[in-house]
Write a sequence for this structure.
């Protein structure tokens, strides 16, 4: 059985389907998440396998490199073909000015974190933040106070494995993670958690860049690998916020287009490029940037006060949002799903043509995860010429990448 688990993990990693979520480290104490040569977090065995009972079955059911399952929508849900089901949708922002300013897009999730802790609805919140000892890196953290929530506010465009934390499996908690991490937790909570599953929070995710992307961006700004970075933020302190790093008394920065668009985004790992669920359909609550759009329908990144689109995916999530609003923690205003879809072209286009990408990958010899329940084929059939171009482009890229790997 141990050999079966090791083979299952190796198969996901070898096929480049690993998202770096950290689920497997909860199934085997000898596994740790470490950066590979490409700057992505991957599981590595430290000694002989120490897998828990039924580890292979749990892994194959929950690992997002194996499968992500589309969930049945709640009875009263509105279902959008590209953004999934929701039972509530609003523009939202933190009423606390400090939280709103620190957050990437209005601070709504950070405000909910603090409210959960203050009211005792959660004893802890698992999230991600800069490593205090090495702020270039991002690590999972356990948040138990407003001060800790404030330090963890803002996006982290770098590898982190939220499930690589023992606290994620404790009851009376909440977990905020990438959609792939929340999908894994949703599918395995019954096996790994005693008591009620945690409240699950997520955000629209464009993918996980390589750690090398951060290092290259810093180098562009004149910061060498040997320089000690004392503080690093990817976004926040405004909306959309600037990438900033402090080195002794000096501060370097780059705007969102330069940081994400030119350096970080292009290093996104392959698994994220074929992700079915960048919109967090497995979560209870999901946040997203609620951009204004230009005449072409594309987001405008002008600095301003942050606003989050806040989706309740489940009745549990809706009740938490409404209770936080009633407590004065977050402000809410109605939002139409068509407005959110227009503001998120990356997510809608990726979902629309994903079946073509998946087929192109398979034809080129790389097996992607399985995505039952998402009805992807019918989306691509609506624009067959674009789907065919996407298939051919994916096939060519995967063949080229495989050839480059084999050459090395």
């Amino acid at each position: 059985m141990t050999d079966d688990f090791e083979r299952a993990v190796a198969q996901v990693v070898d096929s480049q389907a690993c998202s770096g979520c950290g689920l497997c480290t909860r199934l085997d104490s000898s596994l740790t998440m470490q950066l590979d040569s490409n700057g992505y977090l991957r599981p590595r065995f430290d000694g002989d396998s120490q897998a828990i009972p039924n580890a292979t079955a749990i892994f194959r059911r929950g690992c997002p490199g194996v499968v992500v399952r589309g969930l049945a929508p709640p009875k009263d849900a509105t279902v959008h073909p590209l953004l999934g089901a929701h039972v509530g949708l609003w523009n939202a922002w933190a009423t606390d000015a400090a939280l709103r300013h620190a957050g990437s897009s209005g601070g709504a999730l950070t405000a909910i974190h603090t409210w959960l802790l203050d009211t005792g609805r959660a004893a802890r919140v698992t999230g991600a933040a800069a490593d205090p000892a090495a702020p270039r890196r991002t690590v999972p953290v356990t948040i138990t106070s407003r001060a800790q929530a404030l330090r963890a506010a803002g996006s982290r465009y770098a590898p982190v494995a939220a499930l690589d934390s023992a606290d994620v499996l404790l009851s009376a908690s909440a977990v905020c993670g990438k959609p792939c991490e929340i999908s894994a937790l949703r599918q395995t909570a019954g096996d790994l958690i005693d008591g009620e599953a945690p409240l699950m929070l997520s955000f629209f995710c464009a993918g996980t860049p390589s750690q090398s992307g951060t290092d290259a961006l810093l180098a562009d700004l004149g910061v060498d690998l040997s320089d000690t970075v004392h503080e690093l933020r990817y976004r926040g302190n405004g909306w959309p916020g600037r990438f900033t790093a402090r080195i002794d008394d000096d501060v370097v920065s780059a705007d969102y287009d330069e940081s994400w668009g030119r350096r970080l985004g292009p290093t996104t790992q392959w698994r994220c490029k074929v992700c079915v669920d960048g919109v967090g359909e497995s979560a209870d609550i999901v946040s997203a940037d609620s951009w204004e759009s230009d005449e072409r329908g594309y987001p405008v990144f002008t600095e301003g006060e942050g606003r989050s689109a806040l989706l309740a995916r489940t009745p549990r999530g809706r009740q938490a949002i409404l209770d936080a609003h009633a407590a004065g923690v977050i402000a809410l205003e109605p939002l139409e799903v068509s407005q959110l879809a227009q503001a998120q072209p990356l997510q809608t286009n990726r979902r629309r043509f994903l079946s073509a990408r998946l087929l192109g990958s398979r034809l080129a010899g790389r097996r992607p995860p399985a995505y039952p329940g998402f009805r992807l084929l019918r989306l691509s059939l609506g624009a067959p010429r674009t789907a065919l171009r996407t298939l051919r482009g994916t096939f060519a890229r995967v063949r080229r990448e495989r050839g480059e790997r084999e050459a090395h």
